[in-house]
UniProtKB/TrEMBL annotation:
Subcellular location: Secreted
Taxonomic placement: Eukaryota, Metazoa, Chordata, Craniata, Vertebrata
Record-given protein name: CREG2 protein
Listed InterPro entries: CREG_beta-barrel, Split_barrel_FMN-bd
PANTHER family membership: CREG1 PROTEIN, PROTEIN CREG2
Highest taxon, organism lineage: Eukaryota
Gene Ontology CC terms, in alphabetical order: cytoplasm; endomembrane system; extracellular space
Keywords assigned: Glycoprotein, Secreted, Signal
Keyword Secreted: yes
Predominant place of localization: secreted
CREG-like beta-barrel domain sequence ranges: 2-135
Family: Belongs to the CREG family.
């Protein structure tokens, strides 16, 4: 009933091992997830990251979803990680989310990443600033 409509989901992500963050979001996904099925048909996606770990919200005891807490939105194409990057994707995901090693293998897990095309930073009520991808 929602085919062709935007669909949101929460996925584990990592941009690299703790000592080697790249800024490129990697995901460990299964084709059994409707989100992944949709992305394989139409790879355009957006990812919003809240300021959950920032000092402002924590220091002022403000809910991370409050508009005063910054959020970063990335948009781009979701692609299957090529063979030459699989080992890095494994290190990235498994070092930050060790539990994924125990996920059922029958779910045909594989790695995807976002090729970022646009970045927006919302740092206050409705105020949005574009950021160059190179930054």
């Amino acid at each position: 009933q929602i085919q062709g409509m935007p669909y949101g989901n929460c996925l584990l992500l990592s941009d690299g091992p703790i000592n080697n963050s790249t800024g490129i979001p990697f995901f460990y996904v299964t084709p059994k997830d409707n989100t992944v099925t949709d992305l394989l048909k139409d790879p355009m996606a957006s990812l919003t990251l809240p300021e959950a770990d920032g000092n402002f919200c924590r220091r002022n005891v403000i809910d991370p979803e409050d508009p005063r807490c910054a959020r970063l939105t990335l948009t781009g194409q979701m692609v299957t990680v090529p063979p030459e990057e699989i080992e890095f994707a494994k290190q990235a995901m498994f070092s930050r989310h060790p539990v994924v090693r125990k996920w059922p293998r029958s779910y045909e897990w594989f790695f995807m990443k976002m090729n970022i095309e646009h970045i927006w930073l919302q740092s206050w009520y409705g105020e949005v600033s574009p950021i160059a991808v190179e930054e």
